[in-house]
Design brief:
By secondary structure, this protein is mainly beta. It has two domains: 13-187, CheA-289, Domain 4 (OB fold (Dihydrolipoamide Acetyltransferase, E2P)); 197-346, Beta Barrel (OB fold (Dihydrolipoamide Acetyltransferase, E2P)). 14% of the residues lie in helices and 40% in strands. It is built from seven helices and 23 strands. Strands 3-7-8-6-5-4-13 form a seven-stranded mixed β-sheet. Strands 9-1-2-12-11-10 form a six-stranded mixed β-sheet. A five-stranded mixed β-sheet has the order 21-14-15-23-22. The longest helix is centred in the middle third of the chain and has 15 residues, at 173-187. The radius of gyration is 22 Å and the shape is globular.
Length: 365
């Protein structure tokens, strides 16, 4: 394998999109350009006496790929998996590998000049391509080619040695059932013919009031922990406040309130996130209860959300799809922005969006 550290542009070049995840209590970054999808932990077929890092194999969209425990790959002590863990599907040099992480945290952009090469004494330096200097912390960005290139991870173990199924190690029967059901869903192959499949759409999936929702990744700029918010007087209940994210002031929308759902108290919810959306050059923060993952769905699988939404959300939901047996409503980002502009215009000229009529029943402080 070539030494990618000699290629300075890999570390110090243009703005990079990073997925942050947690492994053994430490936050790491993964370059989005080398990621295909984030899925819930599924049942893993383990191979007895297997060599290398591979924990086992899974059927990913009709293809058998190896799965690696990030803890073990980093030289950390492995622990039994939790059913809430995730598998990040990576693609390095055309080879797909599943990487098990404890938790997926955020997605954000990092300017090239905010990333520097790791020094010779940085822990895990051999697996770190750069260190991002964020506003409130440092983030080690993993070099996936080095991390997954140890001991030929991409070579699938010999199934003749015997296999056993696992995941959420020796967990409860209901956990094993959940993992097996997820594995069945993940194994469904993606047809290559686009006229049969339709275009693939990348979605960011999140929760609101215990329900599953999604927004097209094209409209999502980054995902961040909720920063301090400044209340904005004389605005609708759906506007939580204003925030400063990387020097840009933007309003934050409580999506749950706008969709007529019960909003979870932010202080009591450590999983809350702000999705930073960008539509027609305008930035808008959207407060959600938690992020489930990032994945692809066929455009043909998105159907009208008939009977699944309240009248208050008509025009704000573009459709729904089934993900792992769970109905997931797709929020129409341009429609949400248009609604905010209309509410701003109606609220005594607050904001400079175009005029319009607010949704009937909207209330103001």
């Amino acid at each position: 394998m070539s030494d990618r550290r000699s290629d300075g542009e890999q570390v110090l070049g243009e703005t990079r999109e990073i997925l942050s995840c947690q492994v053994a209590g430490t936050e790491f970054g993964l370059p989005m350009t080398q990621l295909r999808e984030v899925v819930d932990l599924v049942e893993i077929v383990r191979v007895q006496q297997g060599s290398g890092l591979a924990e086992g194999i899974i059927n990913y969209r009709g293809s058998v790929i190896p799965v690696v425990d990030a803890r073990k790959a980093l030289g950390l002590a492995p622990v039994p998996y939790c059913v809430d863990a995730h598998i990040v599907i990576t693609d390095t040099g055309g080879e797909k590998t599943g990487l098990i992480v404890d938790q997926v945290l955020d997605v954000f952009a990092v300017a090239g000049d905010a990333i520097e090469r790791p020094g010779s004494r940085v822990p895990l330096r051999q697996f770190v391509s750069g260190i991002a200097k964020l506003d409130d912390r440092l983030l080690m960005i993993l070099d996936l080619e080095r991390l997954l290139g140890q001991q030929a991870v991409g070579e699938l173990p010999d199934l003749a040695r015997g296999t056993e199924e696992g995941g959420a190690e020796s967990g409860r029967d209901d956990d094993r059932t959940t993992l097996r059901q997820r594995a069945v869903e993940l194994s469904k192959p993606v047809e290559l013919a686009r006229d049969q499949l339709g275009d693939m759409v990348t979605m960011v999936c999140f929760t609101l009031s215990q329900g599953a929702y999604a927004i097209r990744a094209d409209f999502t700029r980054e995902i961040v922990l909720p920063p301090p918010m400044t209340p904005i007087p004389c605005t609708p209940d759906s506007i939580v406040g204003a925030v400063n994210i990387r020097g840009v002031i933007m309003p934050v929308l409580g999506l749950a309130t706008m969709l007529g759902l019960e909003r979870t108290a932010q202080a009591a919810n450590p999983n809350a996130r702000v999705l930073v959306g960008e539509v027609k050059g305008a930035l808008l923060g959207m407060l959600v209860d938690g992020v489930l993952g990032i994945f692809e769905v066929s455009s043909q699988d998105i159907v009208p959300a008939l009977g699944a939404i309240e009248m208050q959300t008509v025009g704000l939901i573009e459709g729904e799809f089934d993900y792992q047996g769970r109905p997931t409503c797709v929020v129409d980002a341009p429609a949400v922005l248009g609604e905010i502009e209309a509410l701003d215009a109606a609220a005594a000229g607050i904001g400079n969006g175009p005029t319009g009529s607010p949704r009937q029943g909207a209330s103001y402080d």
